[in-house]
Amino acid sequence: MTIRENAAIIAEFVADLRGTELPPEVVIIAKQSLIDWFAVCIAAVQDGEARLAADTIHAWKSSGNAVSVDGRSGSAAPIALINGTYSHALDYDDFHIASVHHAGGPTFAAALAVAMDHGCSGQDALKAFVSAFEVSTQIGMNDVGLSLGNAGWHPTCILGHISSTIACATLLKLDCQQIENALGFAAAQAGGLMSSAGTIAKPFLVGKSAMAGVISAELTVRGLRAPRHLLEGASGLFATLFQKNVAPELHRLGREWQMLQNTFKPYSACQLTHASIDVARTLSSQFEAAAVSSVKAYVNPFALKIAGHEQPSSPLQARFSLKHCIAMALLGHGASPADFTDESVKDSQIARLRDLIEIVPTEGVSRTSARLEVVANGKQNAATTSAALGSLGRPMSMVATEDKFLESVVNELGSRSKTMLDALKSFEQRGAIEEVAKLLRSIQGQAHPSPAAV
């Protein structure tokens, strides 16, 4: 099966899903993804670097009805860029483990911006998200996403171009040929380096993939044509990225719902650190941190590749440092957004423990597993987890996600937090998306921390 044939399968699936009623269980997870997306985005409004990026884009002074999570309005493309950046700034966003794709971040950023700007309903936006989620995660399956990461590409930035484009194409009611055309524009723009992890460049690239989806669909609506061969053959997107002829496999598209495999983060750090955080928190009550003399962490090799910062110098780098995350957890920290600060990066107790930790990449350890061996007072303490909190083996419930939302947005929304949550829980109802936009506009004008100097 060629990638050209896959493009036709994608277009047909997307067009057909518009007239199909989604299974209730899929709608539930889609709304949980929506609630989680707003939680992590609104929490990131407090982040100085993300706010500076947003201020820079707002200065373009676009006009439109899309609303950013910091309460300001504009046209769909720049608002998608802003919200996509916020969505990934704290590395607290949803994660489809098999495809290595933070699908919610760029996809909701694009879908909600277009829905607000073009007067679409919340129900339309949810269906557009599901359609895009299914296609992009299916493309990332069979180790495509994992191989992208190992090759140095950020999987979400690649797959996010596709998911954002499909969401926007769905909302703008593009036909099959137009969807293929929009995917051509998406492929032409796709990119993003994994080496940007630990800097604001990585979430900004997620925002760029959201903006690219809006642009791809809107250019197609205007009648502009993209070279459709960019999604096929030896010169296509994936063959170029991998430098060998690679085609996504879509034979399960429409037969099983990948939405049911989405996961949500309890910790504001790279997902590959979560199992180690879990184990360290379990062990932390068994000894005083000052008594620790050595730590060995046995992790999946991909974890060290992505979260291998030895001596982080910023909160963003700390989120991609196994050593820092383990040290914090051994000291009893919960790895919430508030735990990743300039002060924690410089903390002498955390730094001492970081220097004692040895990361051992181990084949056979899954990406949601870890084992820690800690020597304290001359005695070895060990613990293992086969399923990190938030993974498919230990999923976050809807109630836990709602709690995460309320904790994340209270600084911005205050007493309006519960009203926002109620609107998101009934997002498919008439008027819900307008209520959400109204509540977002109430955020504008609040005081925020000044960004750190470069």
Describe the structure.
This protein has 20 helices and six strands. With about 450 residues, it is α+β, with helices and mostly antiparallel strands. The protein folds into two domains: about 5-265 and about 410-440, 2-methylcitrate dehydratase PrpD (Orthogonal Bundle), CATH 1.10.4100; about 270-385, 2-methylcitrate dehydratase PrpD (60s Ribosomal Protein L30, Chain: A, 2-Layer Sandwich), CATH 3.30.1330.120. α2 crosses α4 and α5 crosses α10 (about 200-220). It starts with a helix and ends in a 13-residue tail after the last helix.
How are the secondary structure elements laid out?
Layout lengths: L2 H15 L6 H21 L3 H11 L7 E2 L5 E2 L1 H14 L14 H15 L3 H19 L3 H7 L4 H17 L4 H14 L11 H21 L15 H6 L31 H10 L8 E8 L1 H6 L8 H4 L3 H9 L11 H5 L1 H9 E5 L8 E7 L2 E7 L12 H16 L3 H9 L6 H10 L13
Parallel strand pairs: 3-4
Antiparallel strand pairs: 1-2, 3-5, 5-6
Helix pairs in contact: 1-6, 1-9, 2-4, 2-6, 2-18, 3-4, 4-5, 4-10, 5-6, 5-8, 5-10, 6-8, 8-9, 8-10, 9-10, 12-15, 15-17, 18-19, 19-20
